[in-house]
Amino acid sequence: MTNESFNSADKKEDNYALDDTLAGRVVQAGFAGAALSLPDYIKNPKALITSYILLLGSFTGLVGYLNAVDEEEDTTPEPPAESSLPLWQLIAGLSIIAVLKVLGLRKLAKALTKRGVKKPWSIFGGAGAGVVFAASEYAARRGTDI
């Protein structure tokens, strides 16, 4: 066995293309920042929900496209291991966390607006994008998944 075949057998296959490049990590951060900033620019609740759905759809489409590109034709990813947590419980739990987070951010946004900040959601978006980028860049440099 050559060193080359030994090293390729020990590598963990990463099928998530957005984490592989600096550009992908910037895209993730940009989408997070844009999603958090939307309430400053779209005041109508129906238009805001529509914008969130379109943003989520475009991000999902980009992820699907980038993950469909296979650099090595002879590798086939293995299906993920079975989870003991049903999908509906995962979605419900994440939805509850998201609602609580948004309610807390709304209170903070109102407090900042009273203090004279014109676009508090843009501040949240910038901070959120920075956190997403820093966390994904840290994970990429360490070679681990977050």
Compile the SSE list and pairings.
Elements: H1 3-10, H2 22-41, H3 45-68, H4 87-114, H5 120-142
Question: Could you list some keywords that capture this structure?
Answer:
146 residues, mainly alpha, single chain, globular
Overview in brief:
The chain is an all-alpha fold.
Account of the protein in words:
The protein is mainly alpha-helical. The protein has a domain at 15-69 and 120-142. Helices cover 71% and strands 0% of the residues. It has helices at 3-10, 22-41, 45-68, 87-114, 120-142. The two termini are 33 Å apart.
Number of DSSP-assigned strands = 0
Distance between the termini: 33 Å
| Major sheet | none
Helix content: over 70%
Mean pLDDT: 75
